[in-house]
Amino acid sequence: MSPQARAEARSLRRRLQPLSVRRLADLVGPRMAPALVAAAFVEAYSSSITFAALVFALSLSVSSLSRRSGFPAALLPAARATLSVAAPVAGVALAAMLA
Q1: ∠37-71-84 over CA atoms, to 5°?
Q2: Are 51 and 99 contacting, i.e. CB atoms less than 8 angstroms apart?
Q3: Each residue of 27-79: pLDDT tens digit?
Q4: SS (H, E, C) the chain
Q5: Are 79 and 71 in contact (CB under 8 A)?
Q6: How far apart are CA 25 and CA 31, in angstroms?
Q7: From the CB of residue 91, how many other CB atoms can be counted at a distance below 10 Å?
Q8: Model pTM greater than 0.70?
């Protein structure tokens, strides 16, 4: 490995701290992925990109709001999974009411 490649690898390791990687994985996995799938289904069904974007935004906001509850959802895996599934459904329902 060249010295330049080693220096780049060291700088990359400094930028990607374990906690920031975990936060990023927590954002992408249980929050953005279900919202993105809901938006993709809506776009495929209705052929409206604006309605799909609205569903994505509402699903992501419902998911973020449900994460701020005072209950320890991390200790209850079934509740966390239920909230991950219910957020896109609530986003679609809210978008249907607005449209």
Answers
A1: 10
A2: yes
A3: 777 778 888 888 999 899 888 899 999 999 988 888 877 776 666 666 777 77
A4: CCHHHHHHHHHHHHHCCHHHHHHHHHHHHHHHHHHHHHHHHHHHHHCCHHHHHHHHHHHHHHHHHHHCCCCCHHHCHHHHHHHHHHHHHHHHHHHHHHC
A5: yes
A6: 9
A7: 25
A8: no
Please report, as a single letter, which amino acid is at residue 55.
V
- Both tokens of 24, joined, read 């990023």
User: The tokens of 91 are what?
Assistant: 């986003």
- Judge contact between 74 and 23, C-beta under 8 A: no
Token pair 């930028």 is found at 15
Amino acid in the structure at residue 31: R
Whole-number percent of the chain with pLDDT over 90: 5
User: Cβ(39)–Cβ(50) under 8 Å?
Assistant: no
Q: What is the pLDDT of residues 31-45, one digit of tens each?
A: 788 888 889 998 998
